[in-house]
Amino acid sequence: MHNPQTADIFSLKDRLAIITGGGTGLGFAMASCFVASGARVIITGRRADVLQAAAKQLGPNAFAEQHDVTDLEISASLLERIEARHGLPTILINNAGTHVKKRVEEHTIADFHSILATHVEGAFAMTRATVPLMKRAGLGSIIFTASMSSLIGLPNIVGYSAAKAGVLALTRVAAAENGPHGVRVNAITPGLIYNDFLRKIYPEEFFDGYAESRSLVGRIGQPEDVANLVAFLVSDQAGYVTGEVYGVSGGVYPHG
Fold it and tell me: Which DSSP letter does residue 149 get?
């Protein structure tokens, strides 16, 4: 039954969101959820063709901006361009990611740095460029996409785990600094979510039987499971939530 008092309780109407890595996977799922909730969404990524196709699929309230988060010096110009075209952003999702699956002794220095450059340096540069605009708007919500590997030891992903642990530190410091200015900062730590990113890392048979053997809810996670939580966290209903870390794993991994 429709309840007019609660129908729009998680509305993102009149909000402008930026989602890095928004053309595929978790980023695309978040963009879709935000658009459905009334937001305008800027999706960024390195591949213009992927972004354009995703924006077309998302509809008239989605816009593509080609951007490589590892090019740290151009984040400010990206935000200037977004403000000029669309107004002040009040949501930033630091979601762009990369991955190397090797044992510690097989990881090269270049491997390690490339992962940190995307997950930590890139997210820092985007946050640094966006916070002043959110302060001018008088509100904002920033989400860092971390990982359960931030919290527990998983083999063969030392660079990724180190980067995602760094993301949690970024989250807590940014929350402490910007709360008085109306800008909230939180992180999510997804477990295994069935999407293109993980399908590049694990063979398909890895997922077979996973839900029955590990997940407490009897299935593996989907991108929409993450997107729905993030939509709540960036909404006004989460106005007292900042500096927090939220697991999304179906109970597979302990949290905290």
Answer: G
Q: Give the active site residues.
A: 160
Please work out, in degrees rounded to the nearest 5, the angle formed at the alpha carbon of residue 137 by the alpha carbons of 133 and 140. 80
DSSP letter at 248 equals: E
- Distance separating alpha carbons of residues 129 and 84, to the nearest angstrom: 14
CA distances (Å), origin 42, targets 51, 86, 127, 179: 10, 9, 15, 24
CA torsion 98-135-84-127 (nearest 10°) is -10
- Residue-wise pLDDT tens digits, 113-147: 999 999 999 999 999 999 999 999 999 999 999 99
Q: Which CATH number fits domain 16-193+223-247: 3.30.70.3400, 3.30.420.100, 1.20.1440.230, 3.40.50.720?
A: 3.40.50.720
Asked if residue 141 lies in contact with residue 90, where contact means CB atoms within 8 angstroms, the answer is yes
> Does pTM surpass 0.85?
yes
Residue 221, strand partner residues: 193
Domain residue spans of the chain? 16-193+223-247
What token pair was written down for 10? 């998680």
pLDDT tens column, 165-200: 999 999 999 999 999 999 999 999 998 887 776 676
Where do we find the tokens 């993102």? 12
